[in-house]
Amino acid sequence: MNTVAVQEKKVNADEKGEEKKVKCVVWDLDNTIWDGVLLEDENVVLRDGVVDIIKELDQRGMLQSIASKNEYDLAMGKLKEMGLDEYFLYPQINWNSKSISIKTIAQSINIGIDSLAFIDDQSFELEEVAFTHKDVLCLRAQELEKILNLPQMNPKFITEDSKIRRLMYQSDIERKKIEENYEGPQEEFLSTLNMVFTISPVGDGDLQRAEELTVRTHQLNTTGYTYSYEDLDAFRKSEKHKLLISSLDDKYGTYGKIGLCLVECESEFWVLKLLLMSCRVMSRGVGTVMLNHIMSLAKKEGKRLRAEFVSNDRNRMMYVTFKFAGFKEIDQVGDMVILENDLEHVQAFPEYLEVRIIE
């Protein structure tokens, strides 16, 4: 596959008409996960097949939560008794409307509400959520057996990061609890985490995760373009491109592969075609590390550095990142803004983490 063909293929996922993949499945409890109403009979039993569905979704890297009108302690106690409590992040078990609970879940996980699915047995609850959040995929609990076959529930790849995604989020919940109780400055807290940020060329074993990052990452993404496994493999092998992936670890465990950048190396200047970072590390102060690394490389090679930016309703933070790094707008082609940096001032890496560069 030649470079020109790859360049022409990159388009936004929505323009391709692909089914948007679900990132988080939100479950009701009564007559959905279990048969019966808990407040009427504490001896409710699990619905046939529901455990297998929950575990399979977890293995596919899909997060799960709860939106149920119930008594919190009673319901969580029942889920723990059933061995299922660990599968649900930020469970909303209260008397709020389901639409409010779903909004809270999306905000807590820090993902777009349009990447959620909601399962309930009550038509009223499904309609209330659908009316308030038109982009949420609403599913009837009566058709539970069909859920695993839906295209939105089937990621193209199941990567190593996918298999431990829930555990990574749960580790981050623990980090946030510790941070909330820390009385010093944030940078001082970050220095206690012993973070190691690693940047390396995308290898053959990274391609599935690299494609997954382009599909799943929307907020901290400079263009919103997606690239296929084949596209990324072509870039990886191209002498005209640099395709780099990053990972983050700290004393509590790994965040996995969380960043990706693509640079096109022209004779006079380099063009940053894509820069993205998982929203899971937004609060870890590592958002500029890859950008600073590319700036340093370009400066060392004596090249000017340009960057492409395509605005959407979520990624303004990336534009602000460019501006703070000294990029200035020089052109606009359709929806794409072209920026350039004279590289006179390249920021050093933050002192609160170790950066490892693998050539």
Describe the structure using short key phrases:
13 helices; 33% helix; single chain; 5-stranded parallel β-sheet
Fold and architecture overview:
The chain is of the alpha/beta class and 359 residues long. It has helices at residues 3-9, 13-16, 50-59, 72-81, 98-109, 123-132, 160-163, 165-180, 186-191, 207-216, 229-237, 289-301, 316-324, and strands spanning 11-12, 24-27, 34-35, 45-46, 63-69, 92-94, 116-120, 137-140, 195-201, 225-226, 241-250, 253-265, 269-277, 304-310, 328-333, 336-341, 353-357. The strands form four sheets. An eight-stranded mixed beta sheet has the order 15-16-14-13-12-11-9-17, sandwiched between helices. Strands 6-5-2-7-8 form a five-stranded parallel beta sheet, sandwiched between helices. It has a two-stranded antiparallel ribbon with strand order 1-10. Strand 5 (63-69), helix 4 and strand 6 form a beta-alpha-beta unit. The protein starts with a helix and ends with a strand. Mean pLDDT is 91; it is low at 1-17.
